[in-house]
Amino acid sequence: MVTPTAVAPPALTTVNEMYEGGQILMTGATGFLGQILIEKLLRSFPRIKTIYIIVREKKGLSAEQRIDKMFRNVIFESLHELMPHFQLKIKVLNGQLDAPNLGLSPEDRSLVMSKVNLVFHCAATLRFDEELKVAINTNMYATQKLLDLAKQCSNLRMFTYVSTAFSHANRKYIEEIVYKPKTHYTELLKLAEMDITHPKYQEARDRLSTENINTYTLTKAAAEQLLHEEATYIPVCIFRPSIVVSTWSDPIPGWIDNLYGPTGLVCGAQAGIIRSVLADPNVKADLVPVDFVANALVCAPWHARQSYEKDNSSMPVYNYVSSKDNPITWYDFSITSQKAQLSIPSSQGLWYCFVLLTKHRTVYFLQNLLLHYLFGYIFDTCSWISGNKFRLLPIYDKMSKVVSALEPFSTKEWTFDNRNVEQMWNQLSSSEQNRFPFNIESLNWDDFLDRYVRGTLVHHLNDKMDSETRIKAKKRYTRLTVAHHCAKSLLYACVVLLLWSLLKYILW
Ligand SMILES: NC(=O)c1ccc[n+]([C@@H]2O[C@H](COP(=O)([O-])OP(=O)(O)OC[C@H]3O[C@@H](n4cnc5c(N)ncnc54)[C@H](OP(=O)(O)O)[C@@H]3O)[C@@H](O)[C@H]2O)c1
Q: Is the pLDDT reported for residue 392 higher than 60?
């Protein structure tokens, strides 16, 4: 049954109309996706009135100072040129998502209720090993409070929740629907009220650890269920990207500011530190560029609003993935990114760049010992003798944790249905498709990975692309290649000698 809403919904024929006079509330604006989204929104829709962003203080900087610093980031350069006063459209609301009432002042809450007509909820804790209580508070409790606030916005056009394609990772086939997790979300919310040392909390945490891959996906799935049950007759849609990596082109190619997922491993390989990864070479790596994600995310409220106008109990879900229409395996990902790394080597790399993939834990364990820890011990000892502070062993300890957290994503494969995303793309006019390109089929992985690798080199390893640095980098890399092949030959010679001695001992 279609229940009448307080405000007659506007008929929307174009994405532009969705943002006409837009007063947007956004969480996670300081995050990787949030920054690209905010830039795209401001650049694409000059008729957006205000973007309210909930930001917390961090590392001694106030929310306002953090935002000033963020807008000095290279990705906002073209926006500064195009709209020099764009910051006047930004209203920073001091808040803390896991605090009561989102940590907002009563004045800011009233402001949001009276003004906001669109919500993008992007904030989350993405740590796979996050303490359950923290993950519940950040990913679920905050979603509930934000929804309560959105319900009081008299003019709400759409509440867009950014989830993850892996929220229901315990399934093999994932459709664009909200699945009911085994444990009801209210039970999880109750858990967050307990002390983490309470035996009941610990018992529940152990039980829940088998229900989903990790506390991140568990709480993202529960937040979806929360929306499904609590957002009746409120315009809500759920957007689920898979593994988000650097920009393809917009606003600049190859930009990335985090080390999540494969990015940390690509950086490690470029630095000549990582040589073995636990990943099934034949499994599809479901990667999507962040600018494509932001483009699809910008269009999702427009598309979802049309469904809502037909049936106001609808809650469209968008699986934004690459594995269905433009798959790439971890093997191809590894080979192609290594090719890119060879063409633009790091100027500070420690060793020749090569990465072995294995899906077998024992093989990985041995490779990890031999290619990482043994190298680390030798390097750290030399470093200590020469009075250098740089140490590899703590990096390997950290990396081992990352690799095991990533294991489910690098050794398993899911089949996704993405009909809503396809439909959304097909409903866009050709000029809108040009403004918001997100058709993943159009992505050429070779070209993309080249930009991704360059991006990690520039934005993470602070390398330079000028010709002088490149010449030095190539020379250094040639020396490292020779050293690598000499060390390899020496190692093989030692193994042959050892075997020969053993054989001699046994036979004679
Ligand atoms: N990155 C991916 O590969 C990926 C894949 C699928 C889905 N997603 C989803 O996309 C969304 C954005 O992810 P991202 O990659 O942009 O992550 P991110 O870079 O880690 O950003 C997370 C954002 O959430 C904010 N946040 C976290 N806890 C908060 C709290 N207690 N109070 C206020 N703000 C808080 C962070 O603010 P601070 O700057 O103050 O920390 C930051 O702005 C998330 O919902 C995530 O689940 C991401």
A: yes
In 3D space, the residue among 498, 496, 279 whose CA is nearest the CA of residue 367 turns out to be 279
CA separation for the pair 442, 351 (Å, rounded): 35
Q: Where in the chain is the domain with CATH 3.40.50.720?
A: 17-259+284-327+414-439
- The CATH architecture of the domain made up of 17-259+284-327+414-439 is 3-Layer(aba) Sandwich (3.40)
Measure CA 67 to chain center: 20
Q: Using the mean position of ligand 1's atoms as its centre, give its distance from the Cα of residue 133 in Å.
A: 17
The count of other CB atoms within 10 Å of the CB of residue 47 is 10
Q: What residues does 55 pair with on adjacent strands?
A: 94
For a ligand 1 pocket test, name from 30, 62, 108, 220 the mutation site with the most ligand atoms within 8 angstroms of its C-beta: 30
- Rounded to whole angstroms, the Cα distance separating 295 from 299 reads 7
* CB neighbours of residue 107 within 10 Å: 9
pLDDT digits (tens, 9 = 90+) for 430-444: 999 999 999 999 999
Give me the amino acid identity at 126: L
What atom of ligand 1 comes closest to residue 166's alpha carbon? Answer: 6
